[in-house]
Design brief:
By secondary structure, the chain is of the alpha/beta class. It has 2 domains: about 220 residues, TIM Barrel, CATH 3.20.20; about 160 residues, TIM Barrel, CATH 3.20.20.70. It contains 14 helices and 20 strands.
Length: about 375
């Protein structure tokens, strides 16, 4: 494995932060972008690698790559429309650790030759796909890093649902998977992570931000924040405005917080349908499933499911009971953990410091009565958790 692939293959969600001045689909993004300054800032903000556009159609050049190389030690991806070995060599000399290869522009013979030459030079290749046929080709080419672009480069339309479906197919393969395009919020990055992406590549969202490095740090920050037990659209809207990443709707019959349905949630957030015993079909992005327990609304143990597969362990309290070892259980649990159980604005920071969860979940302590949210408590909880 090369430096680029190694950097993206670590635990958790990695990010490739992109430097680009303009886009054919969006026009000027940041015409005065300084690649050296941005590369250094992205590295400090948590980027595992930096992508630098070297094509003039994006306002880029190899000089930008050289400037970024002088400013940071993180792996650099040279991003352009590479069709010839000479272009790869030029990128290597300018400081690249990896090059982009677009299967849209390369047949298998040319792609294989480009991959082989990049390896000879000690470079990784990000082999970009955007549909099932190209993904199959990338796997057959034994690409070590495969990008799945939500944007169709012919129409410029973004289809994140199709992207996530393709990412989800890669679970049985060893390639590092990068979700590209269409990521503007923490929830969207987390959605790619839960689908199986090792990393996200973010460009336009960073270039449009007032502070690109702060935006990157925000996208990578954890824990995510879930407000649950929502029964009214006005409460959903307040939680979204406050910055909640996940909105939870309890659909268990016996719950005092039972929602009429999964209410409307913006596309840049995640909806979660909460069940006891068995999952039913809904429009929610994720399902949260608790065990049944005789005489109680729910059991204690729960998991977060994506397309029926467990992706997060929910560490909760027993129904209407305390547990002095609650936080210790969270610390001892491997993998992603969502911490729940009577969290509120006054105790969530301490719980986060103690357990370092992937997400935190609150319901009852944000209410005026079951299912009716206190908007100030919702705002205070999200602010404290983020």
């Amino acid at each position: 494995m090369g430096r680029f692939r190694d950097a993206l293959a670590g635990p958790g969600l990695s990010a490739v932060a992109e430097v680009k001045r303009r886009s054919p689909s969006a026009g000027d993004l940041r015409p005065d972008a300084d690649p050296a300054k941005l590369a250094a800032q992205f590295s400090s903000a948590g980027a595992s690698a930096v992508s630098v556009l070297v094509d003039e159609r994006f306002g880029g050049s190899l000089d930008d790559l050289r400037a970024a190389r002088a400013a940071t030690t993180v792996p650099l991806l040279a991003k352009g429309f590479f069709r010839e070995e000479l272009q790869i060599l030029q990128a290597r000399v300018a400081g690249a650790d990896a090059v982009l290869l677009l299967l849209r522009d390369l047949d298998d013979t040319r792609a294989r030759a480009m991959l082989s030459y990049a390896r000879e030079l000690g470079l990784d290749s990000l082999v970009e796909t955007h549909d099932a046929d190209e993904l199959h080709r990338a796997v057959a080419l034994e690409a070590g890093v495969i990008g799945v672009n939500a944007r169709d480069l012919s129409t410029f339309e973004v289809d994140r649902r199709a992207q996530l479906d393709l990412v989800g197919r890669m679970g049985r393969h060893e390639a590092v998977v990068v979700a590209e395009s269409g990521i503007h919020t923490r929830a969207q990055g987390a959605e790619a992570e839960l689908a199986g992406a090792n990393a996200i590549l973010v460009g336009s969202a960073l270039m449009r931000a007032e502070d690109p490095a702060a935006k990157l740090a925000e996208l990578l920050s954890r824990p995510l924040v879930k407000v649950c037990g929502l029964t009214r659209q006005q409460d959903v809207d307040v939680a979204v405005e406050a910055g909640a990443d996940m909105l939870g709707f309890i659909l268990a019959e016996a719950s005092p917080r039972r929602a009429p349905d999964v209410l409307d949630v913006p596309d840049d957030r995640l909806s979660v349908a909460v069940f006891v015993g068995e999952v039913k079909d809904t429009k929610a992005d994720l399902a949260q499933l608790y065990e049944r327990e005789e005489g109680r609304v729910r059991g204690r143990e729960a998991v977060l499911l994506r397309d029926g597969e467990p992706v997060v362990t929910v560490i909760d309290l027993p129904w209407d009971e305390q547990d002095p070892l609650h936080l210790q259980r969270a610390v001892a649990t491997e993998g992603r953990v969502m911490l729940a159980g009577r969290l509120g604005p006054d105790n969530v920071r301490e719980a986060i410091r103690a357990a370092r969860p992937w997400a935190v979940d609150a319901a009852s302590r944000l209410e005026t009565e079951p299912g009716i949210k206190d908007h100030e408590k919702v705002r205070a909880f999200v602010a404290a958790a983020r």
